[in-house]
Amino acid sequence: MPNSIKFKVCYSLTAFIFLLLGCSKDDMKTSDGPNQSGCQEPAPYQVNFPDGKLPWPHHAPGLDEAGYQELQDQLWIINNFGQYQCGDSQDGCYFHDGLDIVLENGTPIYVIEPGILKAIAGNGPYYWSVVVEDMDGLGGAWIYTHITPNPALKVGDNLPKGACLGAVSFQGLEHLHLSRAYLLEGGAWNRFSDWSTVSPDDYFIYTDHSPPVIEAPFYFFRNNFPDRFTRSDTTTVNGEVDIVVGIRDPGQYAHSQSTLYGDRLCVKRIEYEIYREGELLERRIAFDFNRMQLNRENLADKVATVFKFHLEMNPSFMVEDWNRFVSHYIITNSNGSGIFEPGEVGDKQYSWKTNALDEAGESLYPNGLYTIRVYAWDNRDNEAVAESLVLVDND
Q: How far apart are CA 150 and CA 189, in angstroms?
């Protein structure tokens, strides 16, 4: 991969950390936006979409079927919802809260669902966000970030589907950041801390037949500690154990069609099973990003509940390692529902308790060889399965 691309990816990550974590309520600015928008004359949509599906934000309404197919073939999403993002410090880690669609600067961006323009906010010149709230008044909105807003827009405008919002503007790996968000009670749309985000995947049409990649063998740590259980022929564990599994999602739209850079996306859902001597003991949901709502509250704690810090897993990590980056999920840090419950974030109370006893005082996990089987699904429900052996020795 060329050094220029490596630099752009690194810069993009650093810059977006600033966007999410470096802007307080006091330092946000609102504006009618800079003047160069890239907007063109409006036109009716030429392509029909199935019920519940929306056009991509760079889909010009006048695009014909051939043009639409080319757009689909060239689609590249470098970061998706729930994805691990981090710099050199665990305090700066965060969940990516939308879709980063790689597009050249100047690419026109259009309203994908009719709504009311509620805010044009940001810290320019590359961090303008345009918020278009749904017409139904239920507090949902689409947020388009890293664009130069159309100077004709003003807060309060009713915007039809296909209206031109502006054009992509970012210094780094050029892209649009698209979020599906809901306003918190008493909040304001021009403050990033005042809304929560949900997965936008189901609104769009993807072409993807590639299952996630699950690394095996898995890693086993003492619960809440960096101490890794070691292996001779088979890793031996005891007590309260964190099971850590490396997973990434490749696919047709997850990398550049020219350089093949990417293939590092987050999966939608992870489940796991524990077997002893071929008998299934339990099956649990680890994480389900399709059901999660993300916001800035306890953000670093939430990330550390789901993911192992990448420098802890790979101390020699280099910039180029973001290509085909493998996120390491702590699959046992879950109550089994797949989502965060109130009061649970940060204490990481969950683990595989190999020394647990039943009501009669008998061991739930007697000493012996166990199989951990992990399932992962991407947003198109492509499934991957992998397993790893581990020896329990509580004596």
A: 18
Same-domain check for residues 89 and 123: yes
> Nearest 5°: phi and psi at 289?
-70, -20
**pLDDT per residue over 55-85, tens digit each?**
999 999 999 999 999 999 999 999 999 999 9
Residue 332 vs residues 216, 270, 303: alpha-carbon distances, Å: 16, 11, 14
At 193, which CATH number?
2.70.70.10
Is there a single domain that holds both residue 64 and residue 169? yes
Of 155, 184, 203, the one marking the end of a domain is 203
Tokens of 143: 């947020």
Query: pTM for this structure?
Result: 0.89
The contacts of residue 296 (CB under 8 Å, 6+ apart) are: 20, 21, 192, 193
Helix residue spans in the chain (DSSP H)? 3-21, 65-74, 299-306, 310-313
d(CA 38, CA 53): 25
Amino acid at 53: K
